[in-house]
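Summary for the funding panel

The consortium committed to producing paired sequence-structure records for every protein in the target list. Below we show the first two records in order, beginning with the earlier of the two.
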Amino acid sequence: MFVGLLLLMMGVLMLLEKLDIIYGDTWDYFVPIAIIALGASFIFKDKKEAKPK
């Protein structure tokens, strides 16, 4: 799921750059978003495991 989310974000950023909606290198936008998404996935993963069954 996480890899799919990262690929989706990367594709959206590349599309926005091609449409001249955002300016600059795609990687300048992708790396911080990837780090935030990775951290969020760790947080939500921990919360799912902590729920009693």
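The next record, for a separate protein in the list, is shown here:
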Amino acid sequence: MNIKIKLILTGFIFFGLLTAGFFISRPQPLFAQSNSEVSQLNGQIEQRRKEINILQKEIDAYAENIKAKQKETKSLKGQIAILENQIAKLNLDIQATQKRIEQTNLEIQNINLKIQSLEKEIAAQKEKIAEYLRLIYKNDQVSYLQIILINQSFSDFFDQMQYTEQIHRNLKTAFNKLKAAKKDLETQKSSWEEKAKAEEKLKEKLLGQKSELDERNSAQGILLLQTHLSEKQYQANLYQLQLEEQKINAEITALEKNIRKKLEEQAQQEKFNQFGPAKLIWPVSPERGITTYFHDPDYPFRYLFEHPGLDIRAYQGTPIKAPEAGYVGRIQFRGDKSYAYIMLIHNNGLSTVFAHVSAVKVKEEEYAAKGQIIGLTGGLPGSIGSGNLTTGPHLHFEVRLNGIPVNPLEYLPQ
């Protein structure tokens, strides 16, 4: 083939590459099938959003009802209404959580479809670029000297040069787009992983909410058992429960004061001081969640008294660890269904109380080492050591500073 013909063919190829390069630099549409599936998923995601918004409005309405009822006079009817609203709200919370899980799953499917389409597009573009490179290599045998000799003017030569430069620019743009597409793909994969983690957390939250629902139902059951009583009898029972709580609280406060004085008089304070400053650990693992916080406004029995500690969800019979070395100041345990607790006295004016215990592993007036098993959790209504005011298996844990209840979360590791 003579040089002139080769140059003509090269020009056609250059022009073809330039044209193809123009198209390759433009965004490629997603495949039709994927577009259809993505549209369907977007519709389903939007539907879940609407359903979640509707549920949220109902949840907010129940929350307002609960606040309104809590401000009313504490009657049997009022307390049952509060619990009924709390249970209804919690049921809606569970439904909303389930809808969010469904929405997350749909979003993950949506991302997967986009990733698949992007991978196909990248593969197609790579094939095109490979073909262009093969054509350039095959026809890049004509030297610039030959082009100058065959062209009639420098203008033709410069036109040919511009074609060549344009092709290289387009190829560079195509490679940059591929790199950007790859980075976008990696970002979407990372997003997929984050959404998967969020989905697992939502599932855990849902399970926790179901457990909380069971506890709320139990709390409601305690009140419903009293519905056969007159309002006057109900108020009398509340008064007795308040007296019992005040008596226990006063007993713990007085015991702590007397025991600290006794330790000083018996010269045991020196041994006590060997423990060093109190640095608490969790008496049971908080992994299963905290059902009631310090002075929690949602505490089911708040109409009787403020909740003075944490209720840590724990299976019945879970070992209780001493959160710090201390002196066993008091054990209230009869082996029946009455309220049972253990009190430890620590340095820095701190003491800890563990209630609804189903078994005791220490004795009064002995020292417990940090982390030592001092008892077993309880709280299951009607079980040993549970007492009257319990909604399910858990450990009631108090921290007291100079006899006054304080927020345990301020003393526990986060």
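Regarding this second record: The domain at 237-410 is CATH 2.70.70.10 (Glucose Permease (Domain IIA)). The CA atoms of residues 221 and 391 lie 9 Å apart.
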